[in-house]
Write a structure and sequence with these properties.
The chain is of the alpha/beta class. It is 40% helix and 17% strand. The chain has a single domain, classed as Rossmann fold (3-Layer(aba) Sandwich), CATH 3.40.50. Strands 2-3-4-1-5 form a five-stranded parallel sheet.
């Protein structure tokens, strides 16, 4: 059985921002767990809260299968088609900086009113600017760090000192 690393600190931040009307942006260095937080932990939380799976829309822009969706002329009509039903939709977009014109696309989606937008981004250009300002006051940043020692130890079965040696390695 695979153990799941708890990232409760970051999950709680996402939960607190649900339906706040802003675009939630999870930033951080590569491989710190942004994608896992959004597409695994947060998605599981939404499903447990009774959100229908067809009201959780995911797109991983870094996957080869989704390259065509990096073009806003392809992505925007596709996402609008996904938002046709009643109720709130939760949009989980991974590596959104790969989407051309991502700021205007996400601002356009935010205006629809029936979707709550959560995105990740990690390249240097994306992280170097004030993302909240980039979205014209519509952004809400959550900066994520790599695993802490206590998070690592939450799934480590061995002795504390062995865990420390493994963690720093």
């Amino acid at each position: 059985m695979e153990k799941e690393i708890k990232r409760d600190y970051y999950l709680d931040q996402l939960i607190a921002r649900i339906d706040n009307g802003l675009i939630k942006v999870v930033t951080g260095i590569r491989r710190c767990g942004k994608s896992y937080l959004l597409r695994q932990i947060f998605k599981k939380y939404l499903l447990k809260q009774g959100v229908p799976s067809d009201h959780i829309i995911e797109m991983a822009f870094d996957l080869y299968d989704n390259i065509r969706f990096r073009d806003p002329e392809v992505f925007y009509p596709w996402i609008i088609e996904q938002l046709k039903g009643d109720g709130k939709y939760y949009c989980l977009f991974d590596e959104v900086q790969l989407l051309d014109e991502f700021v205007s696309v996400l601002n356009g989606l935010a205006d629809k009113g029936n979707c709550d937008i959560f995105v990740t981004g990690s390249n240097a250009k994306f992280l170097s600017r004030d993302i909240v300002t980039e979205f014209g006051g519509r952004g809400d940043e959550i900066h994520m760090y790599p695993l802490s020692f206590s998070e690592f130890m939450s799934i480590y079965d061995g002795h504390y000192y062995d865990g420390w040696n493994e963690y720093i390695t």
